[in-house]
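Late entry, adenosine monophosphate complex.
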Amino acid sequence: MNVLLIGSGGREHALAWKLAASPMLTKLYAAPGNPGIAQEAELVALDVADHAAVADFCREKNIDLVVVGPEGPLVAGIGDDLRAEGIRVFGPSGKAAQLEGSKGFTKDLCARYNIPTAAYGRFDNAAAARAYVEKMGAPIVIKADGLAAGKGVTVAMTLDEALEAVDACFEGAFGGAGASVVVEEFMTGEEASFFCLCDGKTALPFGTAQDHKRVGDGDVGPNTGGMGAYSPAPVMSAEMIERTMREIIEPTMRGIAEMGAPFSGVLFAGLMLTEDGPKLIEYNTRFGDPECQVLMMRLKDDLLVLLSAAADGQLGHMSVRWRDEAALTVVMAAKGYPGTPEKGSVISGLDKAKAAGAEVFHAGTGLKDGKIVANGGRVLNVTATGRNVTEAQARAYAAVDLVEWPEGFCRRDIGWRAVEREQAG
Ligand code: AMP
Ligand code: GLY
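Prediction complete; structure with ligand written out below:
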């Protein structure tokens, strides 16, 4: 099969690495890709926002499957436009991608199908949102409705902070994404990420992970896209997975199909495991980044076979096997992240990190004069496996220490919750 992979981050490097291992693969292309992805794929300079140009490329190169990494193109309808041209796509339609593209859409679906989630109100003006915030009191959570690159959520511990967040949304801090606002109940519990491969009818559980959103050790400081992750998530027991499927995923699949938009692709549920059971925080309609990196390290089966089956509505016949190991990834970021990262610093030692047994996925790198340089906020994902999270963590950090990059930084405690559990248990 000839495959076109869309995207340019660590998630896509991990997908490329796993797709390249498939005996079914003839040729892998990536648009736009990055220097790490270039080790596995031919990079093509396509404007992925130009769906007609992508379709032309697919015809010219006899592409059998397009795998879409990020949410932006999905919400923009690349899945619909390519399928209309007879091209097979792994990824949801634009309407089904509203599960990620509009928080209000998802909350309304949850309300209609009795899916456990935080109580909420949905507003299109500041006065009504402020009145609701004042009625509910703090702590409370304010969310811009649309895609805001992971920045549209404020967990407000005080009323003032909440009102400020409401005003910021309506004053345009998140552009069009904030023209509508969801205000919701503050939930407490441990968070976990749960993934399903979906084909419109079947949702096949596809692993669990936990990530670390805060920039600093001990989970403090500003929110980021994720500073590291590990899989599996120890809190996602077989019983918790069964309950999540029954109470959250299956009604969602039913509901979205009844709306005329059956979901195919990856459904990524961000869960809060509360005293009352699992509750949905949010959906993403693509793999997590960096959660994908740890899932790919553990996946035993052929990814290309699974993604093709999802695109063809054939997941009902499939199962998924995992290596009986834990995986952990440490994000190395450029100093300044999640604010304004410094770009252009030279990175070396990646071969040594790989020789130590880790995979180093490129998230935000560039090439300059033949050298790998930082070209983004999150730059590298140093990823290792082990018998348990403790061992995977030790191996990942041993490899991190071989990377020579004074202008980079990472958290030193990725996986701490799981490591504490393993040491206690
Ligand atoms: P999101 O961008 O929706 O994943 O939200 C970012 C983070 O905000 C989540 O990972 C949670 O830690 C937190 N969060 C979002 N919604 C809630 C909520 N209703 N209660 C408590 N924390 C929340
Ligand atoms: N790491 C969280 C996300 O991909 O949204």
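The first helix runs from residue 10 to 20. Will revisit in the morning.
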